[in-house]
Task: structure prediction
Amino acid sequence: MYLINKETNSIQPLVKRTFTALGIKERAHLQEWIADNPSALGEELLIIQKEFSGFLDTYERLDLLALDKAGNLVVIENKLDDSGKDVTWQALKYAAYCSSLTKDQIEEIFQNYLVSQGNSKSATLLLSEFFEHADYSEINLNKGSTQRIIFIAANFRKEVTATVLWLMRFNIQLKCFKATPFELNDQLFLTLDQIIPIKDAQDYMISMASKAQEEVRTEEEAKNRHRVRLAFWGKLLNAIKGQSLLFQNSSATKDHWLTAGGLNISGISYQLVITMNYASVLLYLGRSSTEENKKLFDVLYQYRNEIEKSFGSPLNWERADEQKSSRISFALPHVNYFNEEDWTQIINFLIKNINLLEASIKPYLPELKKQLKHSDLDVEFEVTKSEPVS
Result:
């Protein structure tokens, strides 16, 4: 840092010092400076307590407790010349302790702070003023897991900055400010530089942290879905034994569909489908040629009335001209395989109706084979793992 001398058109370097060398104390000085002027941290903050120790079963004290303009609690931890190696763990504990504070408790903490500072104003009045004169009853404080942490120190150890950057990937809101004292002719100066996240990249880092956390959630949700599907299909395959010739050689899968052959025609299969909204049985026409699939669909569609009469209900006929495959299906709506209470209903539906669908289609299989033979096409049996359209 330099002092500009306009008269001589020159600059004069300020001497960088340490807090210790200057006799500056953490609580008596740095903490008071921040409490008196929290906007030095680059945003509007309302200090509601110093040396807060209102935690159950512990005598630990956090340095400063504040509120930001969004109503989030902000834990501010001050260190002097060195951050120490345990400051992140310490602050995380404080944030966890504060996460349970209610609006009434926050108001009481702030009121006690005002009294300790000799301020006779009402905490509710000052809170209302801070939140743009909003009605106090409409102010929402300390929502969910929105607690924030701000670290201030002259130097940050690598284990601290590495931990902070890692925690930010999980949407934990942290900032690090480097505090540097300077001296010139018995005058003292202080700079507070935000080093994490770097101001110019702050929005980007926050958005990347949100993206990373979303990817983690998505991956965990996928793993959970796979676990549930494996358990569901295992139970269905156990239940279908002795009730159908289909799926006797099938194994439980993490997919949301289960495939069986039984038609002796390559690329055509019966399938069971489960989703979080419905369950269905279907005949899947998935040969390598779009033309073949549409041709076979049209053959079966000629017998639609007879097939549906045998099945006992109208079927969903999906020629799907924009896709390679076609299908004939029957669904049970408003069930969710994630809800284990629905499993018995879904399993009974699938077993009953896949048997009905097979029996209804079976009389017309010779006609399908005939059409394919006339085209000199291979009609050998082959199980397909093509995914049905949900």
User: Anything to note?
Assistant: DSSP finds ten helices and 14 strands in the chain. The two ends are 63 Å apart (CA to CA). Residues 377-387 have pLDDT under 50 and may be disordered.
